[in-house]
């Protein structure tokens, strides 16, 4: 058989081992894997100096199109994702306008996304006060999970997302459990964090450090415990997004040991930037939950080493430059959200695999296999015959400095600018097509396809 492409001689990362193998691709699918494949092929890639692994599946990305394309659109956002080694992502139901909370708004999202994605994508649906009766239709349309905010969301247009009150959280969980779906939760106590913030800003305490103090560790832990408790009552499957504290990780691990169906993600920034560094970097590093102390960060690293962090996601939450500025240097006023998805894989491969000797197979589980499994994303998350050829090449001997001009974001305000990273994604393939190459940049046209959750029946009709 003549193949479309053979990736030759790379150190291929499989589920439980790394082996030097050739990978043959036909019609976007991995057709053969062997020590050597000598068949003819339209194209070959020499990967002998590289790791070859499944692309990242980033299940936490805020693309702000439609409605706020000037913050970040599908084209710029997915170029950055592709250049960073992500081959598939899940778009969050907020920051675009309108928020994705029913069939109509999902169709608007899907329509806006058509033909503009360089990588494959799926959608989240939102749980907000008042849309309980719309969750089934979102499920029927193939959203991969539902998302809610226990803290306030930071946007204030009438068509924006709203955070849940406890009643909505409880009834939403009941409904989502009936649908057999997962509820993903931004867990921070809204009342306490908002009031602490107001209090501090009222006293003129407006620095980066003050912002961090207004969202203490216990406000995350309390929200996690409350959600776990309600999850237990309702038997709803849960997923906690961007967990930033060791105590929250332990609570979730404990609930899992006791039989709850619950998972968690954390993000590269919680492992690579401390609260003290946030003060030096400035608004680009503002996010919620906030960056934590070195001590807290070290505990989180230990938990990652112990396998307690199921997955890594970017929480790419971009905004225009003026929203990261405040004439009075008031950190409560600037946008909370990090523009960071282009460096996910490089940063965490460097810090986790190269610097802390975490097995590369575990790393790949966190960036690819676990998210694919948890969110039912079919045919992705693993290098194996008959899977989609969503593959990245990583050079573990190539250092670079993150520079503004290399970033594909609409607004190049990453907190990682100036940072040296000691490895680099050199190629990204989506279903066998090279969409990014380090030397040539983004290649070809946007070929990304929408993915519907495996468990769903109705085709997404757009
Ligand atoms: N609205 C929004 O994107 N918020 C995100 N930003 C952030 O730092 N945490 C979030 O939940
Ligand atoms: Zn969030
Ligand atoms: Zn987010």
Walkthrough of the structure:
It is a single chain. The chain has 462 residues and is α/β, with parallel strands linked by helices. The protein has two domains: 86 residues, Urease, subunit C, domain 1 (Roll), CATH 2.30.40.10; 320 residues, Metal-dependent hydrolases (TIM Barrel), CATH 3.20.20.140. It is built from 13 helices and 19 strands. The strands form three sheets. Strands 1, 2, 3, 4, 5, 14, 17, 18 and 19 form a nine-stranded mixed β-sheet that branches. An eight-stranded parallel β-sheet has the order 6-7-8-9-10-11-12-13. A hairpin with a 3-residue loop joins strand 18 and strand 19. Helix 7 runs parallel beside helix 8. It is globular, with a radius of gyration of 21 Å. The two termini are 35 Å apart. The chain binds 1-[(4S)-2,5-dioxoimidazolidin-4-yl]urea (3AL) and zinc ion (ZN) (2 copies). One zinc ion binds next to loops.
């Amino acid at each position: 058989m003549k193949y479309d492409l053979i990736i030759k001689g790379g150190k291929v990362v499989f589920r439980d081992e790394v082996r030097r193998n050739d990978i043959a691709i036909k019609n976007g699918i991995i057709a053969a894997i062997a020590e050597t494949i000598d068949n003819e092929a339209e194209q070959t890639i020499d990967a002998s100096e590289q790791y070859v692994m499944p692309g990242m599946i980033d299940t936490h990305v805020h693309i702000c199109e439609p409605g706020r394309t000037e913050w970040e659109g599908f084209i710029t956002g997915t170029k950055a994702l592709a250049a960073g080694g992500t081959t598939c992502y899940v778009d969050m139901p907020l920051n675009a306008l309108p928020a994705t909370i029913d069939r109509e708004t999902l169709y608007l999202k899907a329509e806006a996304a058509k033909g503009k994605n360089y990588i494959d994508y799926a959608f989240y649906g939102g749980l907000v006060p008042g849309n309980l009766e719309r969750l089934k239709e979102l499920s029927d349309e193939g959203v991969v999970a539902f998302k809610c905010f226990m803290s306030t969301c930071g946007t204030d247009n009438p068509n924006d997302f709203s955070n849940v009150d406890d009643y909505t959280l409880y009834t939403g969980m009941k409904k989502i459990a009936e649908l057999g779906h997962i509820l993903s939760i931004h867990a921070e106590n809204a009342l306490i964090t908002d009031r602490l913030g107001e209090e501090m800003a009222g006293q003129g305490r407006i620095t980066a450090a003050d912002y961090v103090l207004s969202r203490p560790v216990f406000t995350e832990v309390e929200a996690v415990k409350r959600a776990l408790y309600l999850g237990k009552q309702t038997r709803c499957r849960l997923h906690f997004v961007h967990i930033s504290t060791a105590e929250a990780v332990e609570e979730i691990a404990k609930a899992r040991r006791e039989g709850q169906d619950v998972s968690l993600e954390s993000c590269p920034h919680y492992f690579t930037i401390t609260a003290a560094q946030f003060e030096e970097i400035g608004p680009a590093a503002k996010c919620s939950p906030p960056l934590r102390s070195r001590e807290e960060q070290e505990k989180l690293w230990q938990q990652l080493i112990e396998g307690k962090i199921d997955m890594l996601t970017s929480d790419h939450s971009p905004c225009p430059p003026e929203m990261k500025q405040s004439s009075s240097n008031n950190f409560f006023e600037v946008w909370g959200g990090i523009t960071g998805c282009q460096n996910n894989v490089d940063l965490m491969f460097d810090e986790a695999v190269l610097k802390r000797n975490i097995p590369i197979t575990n790393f790949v589980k966190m960036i690819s296999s676990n998210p694919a499994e948890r969110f039912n994303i079919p045919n992705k998350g693993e290098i194996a015959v008959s899977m989609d050829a969503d593959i990245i090449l990583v050079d573990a001997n190539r250092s670079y400095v993150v520079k503004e001009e290399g970033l594909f974001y609409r607004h190049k305000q990453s907190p990682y600018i100036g940072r040296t990273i000691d490895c680099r994604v050199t190629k990204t393939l989506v279903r066998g097509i090279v969409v990014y190459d380090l030397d040539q940049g983004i290649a070809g046209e946007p070929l990304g396809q929408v993915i519907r959750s495996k468990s769903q029946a109705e085709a997404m009709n757009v």
